[in-house]
Amino acid sequence: KPVDFRRGADSLAALAREALGQDPFSGTVLVFRAKRADRVKIVTWDGTGLVMLWKALDEGVFKWPPISEGVMKLSSAQLSALVEGLDWTRVHPPRRSRPSAVR
To answer: 6 near 39, Cβ under 8 Å?
Structure first.
């Protein structure tokens, strides 16, 4: 769900723990969006402290999935696409082929 963008890293980490049941100090990357979906805040623990990245798109909005229980899981490639303002739903891991027999 959209969050109040006046919140800082500590407040967003507390929100993740209380509302989402996520441990903000586990290395999980937490992505929060603004009401208009044109801004995101990304919070993660790097082992020494909380890191927060804030990004606002000059034009358009970030593509978001339907909200289901407040949590979505993305691969690192999908997260990169989201941050770039791209349609992350079009990013899929390559299909693994069955190993062929070596002759």
So the answer is: no
